[in-house]
Amino acid sequence: MRYRELGRSGLSVSEIGYGAWGIGESAWVGASEDESVRALHRAIDLGLNFIDTARGYGESERIVGRVVRERAGDEVRVATKVPPKNGVWPAPDGLDPAETFPGDHIRASLETSLRASGLDHFDVVQFHVWSDEWVGRGDWLETVAELKQEGKIRLFGVSINDHQPDNALALVRSGVVDSVQVIYNIFDQAPGDALLPACEEHGVGVIVRVALDEGGLTGRITAGTTFPEGDWRNHYFRDDRPAQVEQRVAAIVADLGIAPDEIAEYALRFVLSSPAVSTVIPGMRTVRNVERNTALSDGRPLTADQLAVLAKHRWQRNFYA
Fold it and tell me: Which of 86, 127, 223, 286 is 20 to 30 A distant from 253 in Cα terms?
């Protein structure tokens, strides 16, 4: 496993991290706690030291905390998220930060997360939505500073709204944030335009989510794909969207001259090819997925020619809508 600095924080994180939404047994159907625990342990065995969870991920914080406490001898970094008080995802324009992240709400959510996980602190605490309209307003920054001083959090970050990478540029340039979490993948390459260069310039760590497009960039989403009842992917991949994804992935595979089952590897290597990226956090619910993804931390970025091919496959759309 290779490691990268999380911005200017001094925190070293595995370049393959663990996205723990899927193990929370909430929006994703089919996770088994026993297998999730085995997968987390296997990931740590293989050198992974960064796990991303959230208050809103069902049982995820509890499961992650259980494993981290069982691995007390290993230095595992855990990031969690504070949901907006008003429960609105993503954050629309015009909201006052007192509606979304007032100080008392931030503290109460963090205390709940600490109890659920059994941990005494989190390495990173992130706001689960963000709007640059909040820079310099509200009492959230004061509360974050207090929680750092109390040792309950080490770093502060935000999870940027889906497909809105430029909606954190003011925050990054303000110097008050340690990390940002953003959607970045072969389809959504927009963060590379302004956000990633700004993060490099200002020493802000970058945590990449949805590198595999919620499964779209694994090659396993086809026109006939179905999901279990109650699984949120029935919304994400509704109507003719699976067919659109299948067609787009086939074009990438053809242009790269790779086998269809190699697309996930290339998708993760695409993200890691950016020096601004600190870690990528694919969702992993099985030991098999852990072993496959962590094996890509081998120092082999994509070539300039391969990146030039992938640059042609930007696809602007929002399947969350």
Answer: 286
